[in-house]
Amino acid sequence: MFFSEIVPVIMKKLISTLVFFYCFCTIKAQQYNPEKVNPSVTALYEKAIDFLKNEEFKEAVPVLLKTITLDSNFVDAYLTLGGVFGQLKQYKRSVQFYEKARQKDVAYFSGYHLPYSINLAGNGQFKDALHAIDQFLSLPDLNEQSILSAEYRKKTYQFALNYAAAHTNDDYKFAPINLGDSVNTEAAEYYPSVTITDSLLVFTRRGDNIREDFYQSTQLENRFSKASIIDGDINLEEQKGAITVSQDGEWMLFAGNFNQGFGNFDIYISYYTPEGWSEPQNLGNNINTDAWESSPTLSPDKRAIYFSSNRAGGYGGSDIYVSYLKPNGSWSPAQNMGPNINSTGDDQAPFIHADNQTLYYTSDGLAGYGGTDLYILRKNDVGEWGLPENLGYPINTIENEGSLAVSADGLTAYYASDRNDSRGSLDIYKFDMRPDIRPSRTLYVKGFISDKNTGKKLPSSVELIDNANGHLVMKVQTDESGEYFVPLPIGKDYTFSVNRKGYFYYNDLYDLESKHADSVYDKDIALQPIELNASLTFRNIHFASNSFQLPADAYIELEKMLQVLNENPTIQMEISGHTDNIGKPADNLLLSANRAKTIVNWLSGKGVDAKRLSFKGYGETKSISENKTEPGRALNRRTTATIIGI
């Protein structure tokens, strides 16, 4: 939700709270014995109330404190201070003043158990808050609105206690750090987004009236540089809002109210060029409607856009939708993510992590602490989204939590908040993620793809496949420059595959299940054209010792070879087996032949004409490395494919 959109909501809530507060004070003031309060103190108190009517909460505090210095039994002043500190989100001080008022007059205080409970909850004292709300509900003659409000709060307090009982994180310390004056100002900063390297931070800053601008800052060791406005046409329009940057830093998506739109806010895209960010383009009517679309987030392979919309046909006020990039470069009709994810309230601000398996978003319609909470979604082993889980206290509070962005390593989160140390309004903060809500730590591999013979850069398809189940995790289509960028989530083993018609595929393995590499990978790949005598070594096929049975993960690569044979129906191929020098030469020769034959049988079983395939075992006769070391012997234990006819 944009700042310009949430302000009316916050103000409506604030005004409603203050009206309740003033009415309660007036009623109680009529019951309170005015003879106990000196007229000069009463006049001072009324001056404080004038500050509150103008929403000048900080200015009211010293005046109210002076009233209780002059009259330590002035209960209304204690109660008012409790309310004011609650508005300032200084919940601990709020609770202290409410409790002082209760000590002065228990009966007089009884009607204030509802705001008292809210500030107890704001301070994380949910058990005490539940007790206070029960005391409030026990009062006679409560009106319907008071009962509904109290029952709602009671439900949130009970949720908090249940969550705490199920999640023990005693070692976790929630300590958000303001990003400082280089990023934050007296204006509001919100909707942070970071690239996979955490080197670039982009965000929105509130200007005058309806003006909103996009800013960027680069990370320099442990701090961010002085934020600067993003150059180009991307900032020409006044009414903009949520912005996100692709993991590779090449695309920016944002919401805006441009003349070329379909109605309300639409989602636009801008591309980075040598001349700067390109003119924004509307993403079209498969994503945008005459309703409100906002808060886009782009999957790391740039094949899916998740966003919020309040279009007709959803499950609540606004829902989360997803659209997928089609082979022709257009976006598919947006799909609602369904009732397991969307609620009857507002579900907004999705953020898909670099692991492509974890999504965070906000909702005020799911069970939580009150207002808008943050939730996490995870994909299961077959790529389906699970059920949303609340991020828990103290990340979620009784207030409205905004959008969240998480670094590629999963350790740091960025979000906007108006905490006590903000520079004015909303500021951008970072905090350490609790272990149980972290996504997979994500590295990346990047480089250029070219023709092995000519060196010409090649547009190609790059895939990342989960070895455990063979499912496609990510797919990237490079541009004419042949440059690619693929995230590598740690915790699984992957096959990295590059494909282009007219060329042998390229495969590589990334074993990230058991090891935690500390570096990224730069790999320029030269594809072998389909031509006579061209050969390829199967990287995924590692036969067990003295076995010629295909291993479980061999089928990922065999499917790629099948695709090559089907795309080039005239080529003939020899599959060759090779071993190291361990064992008898005759046994090695037979074993290598059987391994090659196994692959030929699999391919012919998939419909490849057997006349196009032959096999041969070479045993240890064609070593490509020394057999004196295990790494050398491993290189010699291989199976290859060679084109022997065109």
Would you kindly provide a written description of the structure presented here, covering whatever features stand out?
It is a single chain. With 646 residues, the chain is α+β, with helices and mostly antiparallel strands. The protein folds into 4 domains: 3-166, Alpha Horseshoe (Serine Threonine Protein Phosphatase 5, Tetratricopeptide repeat), CATH 1.25.40; 177-437, Neuraminidase (6 Propeller), CATH 2.120.10.30; 441-529, Immunoglobulin-like; 532-646, 2-Layer Sandwich (60s Ribosomal Protein L30, Chain: A), CATH 3.30.1330.60. 27% of the residues lie in helices and 27% in strands. It has 12 helices and 34 strands. Helix 2 runs antiparallel to helix 3, helix 5 (91-104) runs antiparallel to helix 7 (113-122) and helix 8 (126-137) runs antiparallel to helix 9 (144-166). The protein is elongated, with a radius of gyration of 32 Å. The two termini are 60 Å apart. 41% of the residues are buried.
Brief rundown of the structure:
This protein folds into 4 domains: 3-166, Tetratricopeptide repeat domain (Serine Threonine Protein Phosphatase 5, Tetratricopeptide repeat), CATH 1.25.40.10; 177-437, TolB, C-terminal domain (Neuraminidase, 6 Propeller); 441-529, Carboxypeptidase-like, regulatory domain (Immunoglobulin-like, Sandwich); 532-646, 60s Ribosomal Protein L30, Chain: A (2-Layer Sandwich).
Q: Layout of SSEs?
A:
Layout: H1 3-31, H2 39-53, H3 57-70, H4 75-87, H5 91-104, H6 106-109, H7 113-122, H8 126-137, H9 144-166, E1 177-178, E2 189-194, E3 200-206, E4 212-220, E5 223-224, E6 228-229, E7 240-245, E8 251-256, E9 266-273, E10 276-277, E11 281-282, E12 293-298, E13 304-309, E14 319-324, E15 335-336, E16 347-352, E17 358-363, E18 373-378, E19 389-390, E20 404-406, E21 412-417, E22 427-432, E23 442-451, E24 461-466, E25 472-477, E26 483-489, E27 493-499, E28 506-511, E29 521-522, E30 525-527, E31 535-537, H10 554-567, E32 572-578, H11 585-605, E33 613-617, H12 630-636, E34 638-645
Parallel strand pairs: 23-29, 23-30, 32-33
Antiparallel strand pairs: 1-22, 2-3, 3-4, 4-5, 4-6, 7-8, 8-9, 9-10, 9-11, 12-13, 13-14, 14-15, 16-17, 17-18, 18-19, 20-21, 21-22, 23-26, 24-25, 24-27, 27-28, 31-34, 32-34
Helix pairs in contact: 1-4, 2-3, 3-4, 4-5, 5-7, 7-8, 8-9
